[in-house]
């Protein structure tokens, strides 16, 4: 077993990416294709992430990645460290390798970030390293909107103009919420959302991460240079909407009679280490920013 330190460089080792994704796919089946989709959209995992990898001979057995997420938290812009892709190959677990790599990652992050975030199905693995679970909320409201304008289309990523549009809005977006919102971040967004339909409102110059189930609109994120009142968005959806579920704090949507509910996106818990000014607020880290 190599005793070298674990921080690696994709640019210095052209074989590192394939070795990493051999490990990642073993632990998170399907993640490789999501990362490939993001790469096709011009937002590669390798450009955004600093990898910490433990090898057994030439085989990657443990990985923890760190990337930067520019956020607004309680109205203040901060660069948050995102811990992601945490995995150990089956057959090498419960031998202390994860702890070895995580200790180095924490040392690296402590020199750079006041705040770390991650999302996980297994929060107990991160408690010994100073992470704590922070509750999240979804927000529901009743409405009756039939839409007066057919004002949206699905982005076509076979069209280079739509890819350029996505990049422009991701680079210039305002935070979806002043409580917790993300700005000028591409890699996590494109991994999380690049394989899902993205809906564009041309006259608002806004992209919505959303799904419609019967008469319920599920709104996960808005990528736009200015936030709009929710009725403006609903007016451009040409079908009956009777309920809206919002998966971020709706403080910039100008809505009333909203109910907040404890919620876990895909059953994952948000874990935070260090300073987090929004901890006592009702919010959700948007699906498009979860690593």
TrEMBL record:
Pfam families with a match to the protein in the record: Acetyltransf_9
Gene3D superfamilies on file:
3.40.630.30
Give the GO molecular function terms.
acyltransferase activity, transferring groups other than amino-acyl groups
Domain N-acetyltransferase positions: 7-156
| Domain of life per record | Bacteria
* Record-given protein name: N-acetyltransferase domain-containing protein
Recorded source organism is Tolypothrix tenuis PCC 7101
């Amino acid at each position: 077993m190599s005793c070298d330190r674990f921080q690696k460089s994709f640019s210095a080792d052209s074989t590192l990416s394939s070795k990493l994704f051999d490990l990642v796919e073993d632990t998170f089946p399907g993640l490789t294709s999501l990362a490939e989709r993001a790469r096709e959209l011009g937002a590669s995992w390798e450009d955004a992430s600093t990898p910490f990898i433990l090898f057994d001979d030439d085989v990657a057995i443990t990985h923890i990645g760190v990337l930067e997420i520019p956020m607004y938290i309680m109205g203040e812009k901060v660069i948050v460290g995102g811990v992601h892709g945490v995995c150990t190959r089956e057959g090498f677990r419960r031998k202390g390798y994860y702890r070895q790599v995580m200790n180095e990652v924490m040392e690296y992050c402590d020199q750079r970030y006041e705040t770390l975030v991650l999302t996980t199905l297994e929060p107990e693995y991160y408690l010994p390293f100073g992470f704590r679970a922070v509750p999240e909320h979804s927000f529901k409201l009743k409405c009756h909107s039939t839409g007066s304008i057919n004002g949206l289309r699905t982005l076509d990523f076979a069209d280079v103009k739509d890819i350029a549009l996505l990049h422009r809005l991701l680079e210039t977006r305002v935070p979806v919420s002043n409580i917790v919102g993300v700005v000028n971040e591409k890699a996590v967004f494109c991994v999380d959302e690049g394989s899902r339909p993205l809906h564009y409102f041309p006259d608002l110059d806004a992209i919505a991460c959303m799904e419609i189930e019967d008469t319920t609109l599920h709104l996960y994120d808005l990528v736009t240079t200015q936030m709009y009142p929710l009725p403006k968005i609903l007016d451009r959806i040409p079908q009956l909407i009777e309920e809206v579920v919002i998966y971020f704090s709706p403080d910039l949507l100008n809505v009333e009679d909203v109910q907040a509910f404890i919620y876990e996106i895909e059953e994952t818990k948000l874990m935070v280490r260090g300073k987090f000014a929004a901890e006592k607020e009702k919010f959700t880290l948007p699906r498009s920013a979860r690593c």
